[in-house]
Amino acid sequence: MVANNYLDEGWPHKEVIELIALGFTGKLLQWWNNCLTEESKENIKKAVQKEEEGLPIFDERLGRGIHDGVNTLIYTIIKQFVGKPSNITSRIYDQLSNLRCRTLGDNRWYEDVFTTRVMHKSDCNSPFWKEKFINGLPRLFGEKVKETLCNPLGVIDYDNQTYSDISSTIHSEGMKMCRDFKIQSQAKETKEVVSSSHPPQDAITFKYKGKDVLATPFRIPSGEEKLVKKVIKQNNYTNQCLGVIGK
Q1: What whole-number distance in Å separates Cα of residue 118 and Cα of residue 116?
Q2: Any idea where the DUF7746 domain is (predicted)?
Q3: What is the pLDDT of residues 15-55, one digit of tens each?
Q4: Are 135 and 114 in contact (CB under 8 A)?
Q5: CA 143/CA 127 separation, integer angstroms
Q6: Quick check: helix, strand or coil at residue 214?
Q7: What is the pLDDT of residues 59-91, one digit of tens each?
């Protein structure tokens, strides 16, 4: 944060806060100008660090309390526009518990939202949240990801798995699934084309120039069946049609 740079250079908290306030815009600017009283602004600028009992922390080396105006300003803004930190933590827990990735197309959004929210939790690296991260995926796909992450004993070592590791596995399994779907789709299309190029084995009748034309399937003479090792089952409709058309 730029404020820390100014503080490191020895700028007083009061001047740093005034400099930050100059950059306020929109709702934040209206809050600073209209909502806060001059007394409240001065209290923020002169704020000092306090103990849990509420007593100021005195720096004997400096002979005064330790200034904490910048942090007080940030806390005041968060409390005004977001709420108490305890309420934020509670809301994050509810959001993560109900967050779901309905389809694989939502995966990027799901990962961004989950990892952003979970980092606000003090126990973000616990196995509970990492497993919850996977459980929020579509059920069958999530089971596939778990199978990939399992060690030879069938156990997932969440302690040694980062969110980045899990995301990489999700992306890898997603790519495999897409390739499998593409191959299956191509195989289905090929099967349909092959089926359409080999008409049924029964004879059919069609009209040509007002005449009924009978097209019979190709048959191998019974005496030659034993001599043929491989028979391509293809009907002779085209030749029969050409014969009729050529007359």
Answers
A1: 6
A2: 1-52
A3: 888 888 888 999 989 999 999 899 999 999 888 887 777 77
A4: no
A5: 16
A6: strand
A7: 767 667 788 888 899 888 888 887 766 666 777
